[in-house]
Amino acid sequence: MTALNMTIMMVALLIGCSSAFQMISSPNNNAIQRSSSLNMAAKAKGGGPRFDKATEKWIATDPETQGPEAGYDLIGSALRAGPVPVIQRIINPEQYEQAVLKYMAAEGCDRTEAQGNMDAYFENPQDWAYQKLQEQNGAAKKDYANANMDPKQIALSTIWAGVVFWFAYYLITGLAEGKWVKADGTDLLHGNLWSLPF
Fold first, then answer.
1. Please, are residues 42 and 48 in contact by the beta-carbon 8 Å criterion?
2. For the chain, which terminal residue's Cβ has fewer other Cβ atoms within 10 angstroms, N or C?
3. Residues 5-54: tens digit of each pLDDT
4. Where does residue 96 rank: exposed (0-12), middle (13-18), buried (19+ CB within 10 A)?
């Protein structure tokens, strides 16, 4: 196993583990009130994104407040919802942008709230849909725009991910080097799958 392959595997493990231990937080009432007043203002002035029938795409009517620069970057997506929406933004940036603009138009919200909701949707569509259904039935609105953004929680998650990453690296390299078991060259870690006795 080359050093590059090992590095790629460890980075993937780190990213995957960093979103595994997130504290569930209750929504901030001030943020909900602020968000709902933004929704009403956007719906009142009708300045949300519009659908262009000729290109069959959503278009930002005000790029400064509705364009990608108005929202947060890939790191913001990773912190709020983990690696899945980040991968979605890298692989399908146009589809992600269209989803955000469509959500903004439908809900009359700002870009940050729309991105938070789309990140949560791409991370786990069933939980996101369940939460929206509960909100329609009177449950408190979840603030996806500020989810997992508490500095203390970010620091704790980063430390925990570092510990998991170090342990996984130590375990894998120890097994490959034969630290705990004599490596005679006929094991799976040395690429000898077809020479194993089964």
1. yes
2. C
3. 666 666 666 666 555 444 444 344 444 444 444 444 444 345 789 998 99
4. buried
